[in-house]
Amino acid sequence: AYEIYQCDWSSDVCSSDLTGLGRNLNMAQFEGSAGMIGSLVLYGAITGKAAPRIGNRSDIAAPQGVYRCAGDDQWCAISIQTDVQWTRLLDLLGDGADALRRAGLNTLAGRIQHHDEIDAVLESWTREITPTQAEDRLAAIGAPAAAMRRGNEIGAVAEWREVLRPIENEGGFDWQVPGLPFSFGETKPVT
Questions:
Q1: Which tens digit of pLDDT belongs to each residue from 150-191?
Q2: pTM of the entire predicted model
Q3: Gap between the Cα atoms of 21 and 18, Å rounded
Q4: In the prediction, which pLDDT does 190 show?
Q5: Taking the CB of residue 62, how many other CB atoms lie within 10 A of it?
Q6: Is 94 left (phi over 0), alpha (psi -120 to 50) or beta?
Q7: What is the DSSP letter of 174?
Q8: DSSP annotation string for 22-85
Q9: Cα(first)–Cα(last) distance of the chain, in Å?
Q10: Cβ distance 149 to 71 under 8 Å?
């Protein structure tokens, strides 16, 4: 269903570009977000309480967040999920991480408790480099990270090239839209 919505939207934008006329786009918010809130609904059903609001943070990874990088409105998402990744992150940060080199932060519970302090040190590092530099350096130490990319930049990322599908359109524009991010067995995606 998502791919159908995406194609309708892309077709409307192409048509609008050709004709100069606006379009009315309708998409139900519930259906668009229902697939992303399953764990929150389950939490409420089991506990009878609303799930706590933790923003970009996690109860299974710390530090975790979206950090400002060098440049105008540039960001990188980072998620340190293991104690080994934490140790490697400290090594990567070098002297700038001296304040974080203490026993209380060697565990996930300690890092969650001091998340704000860790965020401040980590962002002082990311602010000096571009998002892709942060992503590359963190990937080199085995830490999950992803540079923020705008819509016109995702085609340059190998993982996205596996998901993007070309569509036919009236104006001859070169449009690609997200398809399903998986395939079945040895099958090739439908293009």
A1: 877 887 887 777 777 777 767 666 777 777 766 677 766 555
A2: 0.69
A3: 8
A4: 58
A5: 24
A6: left
A7: -
A8: -------HHHHHHTT-HHHHHHHHHHSSPPP--TT--SS-SSEEEEE-SSTT-EEEEE--SHHH
A9: 16
A10: no
